[in-house]
Design goal:
Order of helices and strands: EHEHEHEHHEHHHEHHEHEH
Number of domains: 1
Shape: globular
Radius of gyration: 17 Å
Number of helices: 12
Number of strands: 8
Structural class: alpha/beta
CATH topology: TIM Barrel
Strand content: 5-15%
Length: 260
């Protein structure tokens, strides 16, 4: 069984004070939920403060991005050396980074390699936009993203990654994919591509999340699918009660499946 993983991507939200208050509001209840890896990904300025609050818990910390170089003349960037003292995870290749900041699969590949060198676990985002989806290009787009992002990585390295399938048309729109639809893309396209690139054992070992308008009302639909191992949660992760409920439901659903 692959251990479920729920990560909250706060995006560009919450000041340091607000981040501290949010963590305090959910920390105790989140810590009590077994059987699920829990990750909070606040903005860079809040990482140190949140780290201190999470240290006595089972909750892990992630960053939302990083540069592939360890240091240098890259004004405004954050390096893996800076993150490794704070975090266990880092989100890479999010569609907003690709759309607004011109990130490419080649650049994401460099970041993945740098993260692995410094023992950071990448959460790699892939997904198609609405036009690509409606044109029947989902498999072509996602397979291409994976091939670019995973270039020159070994099977052992890939097994330790987290992949997040985030259909761009579902992010922040209130119109999530269906559980069955996301499950099909994850099982057939994402695991299928990884199996073609490496082997079936590697494809089955990788944990793959769904992301896109996830909330407490629909999380059970996604987590009841055999190929979906978790969620990358956006807006709902900014509300303590909602995020705790998402984690609880995920633990219940996957725990039930494990006992079946």
């Amino acid at each position: 069984m692959r251990t479920p993983i729920i990560a909250g991507n706060w995006k560009m939200n919450k000041t340091i004070t607000e981040a501290v208050n949010l963590v305090r509001a959910m920390r105790s209840e989140l810590n009590e939920v077994p059987g699920v890896d829990k990750v909070l990904c606040p903005p860079f300025p809040a990482l140190a403060a949140v780290k201190e609050l999470l240290e006595p818990t089972t909750i892990k910390l992630g960053a939302q991005n990083m540069h592939w170089e360890e240091q240098g003349a890259y004004t405004g960037e954050i390096s893996p050396l800076m993150l490794k003292e704070l975090c266990q995870y880092v989100i890479l290749g999010h569609s907003e980074r690709r759309q607004y900041f011109g990130e490419t699969d080649e650049g994401v590949n460099k970041k993945i390699k740098a993260a692995l060198v410094h023992s950071l676990i990448p959460i790699i985002c892939v997904g198609e936009n609405l036009a690509q989806n409606e044109a029947g290009q989902t498999e072509t787009v996602i397979s291409g993203q994976l091939k670019g992002c995973l270039a020159d990585l070994s099977a052992e390295q890939v097994r330790g990654l987290i992949i997040a399938y985030e259909p761009i048309w579902a992010i922040g729109t209130g119109r999530p994919a269906t559980g069955a639809g996301a499950n099909a893309v994850i099982g057939q396209v994402i695991r299928g591509t990884i199996s073609d690139l490496y082997d079936e054992a590697t494809a089955q070992a990788v944990r793959i999340q769904y992301g896109g308008s996830v909330n407490p009302k629909n999380i059970a639909e996604f987590m009841s699918q055999s190929e979906i191992d978790g969620a990358l949660v956006g807006g709902a992760s900014l509300r303590a009660a909602d995020f705790v409920e998402i984690v609880r439901i995920s633990a219940q659903v996957k725990g039930t499946l494990a006992r079946a």
